Please model this.
Amino acid sequence: MSRPKTDKQQLTERLIATFRDSGNQDAAFDNLAAERLGLNRTDLHCLNAIENAGGLTAGELGAAAGITSGAVTGVIDRLERAGFARRVPDPDDRRRVRIEATPEFYARAGEIWGPLAAEWEQALGSRFTAAELARIVEFLELSAEIGERHLRRLAEGDGGSP
Model:
């Protein structure tokens, strides 16, 4: 007979389930956003990685998005054709180029994500203290760190194949 779960175990399970639900909702939102932008989901995922990092090299983009170097070239080409990304010289190494988001992307992103971001800012700012927000950020950073480890584990073939 198993022992009843503690309050902390129950809360941890609830937190994980809610976090996963939030991720699913975010993915659904991004699917619609990609459609509105005329992009496929992978291209939007890459564009988000570029934007979040403030620009990436092609190799960094492949690693961040979990796609091959061959696929990265196609993504960059499509994003450039759409007017949402551009290749710029890397200031630290003239042999490399960086990919960055364009003002056109930021304008379109503001239309799509702006209202959501404004509501998040208002709701989170009014409900949580700065210390509580810091703990939420800590949770999200830890979640990303754990997720990154397991992404690498699956990419390396450990435990992901039948």
Helices lie at 7-37, 41-53, 58-65, 69-82, 103-127, 130-155. The first strand starts at residue 56 and ends at 57.
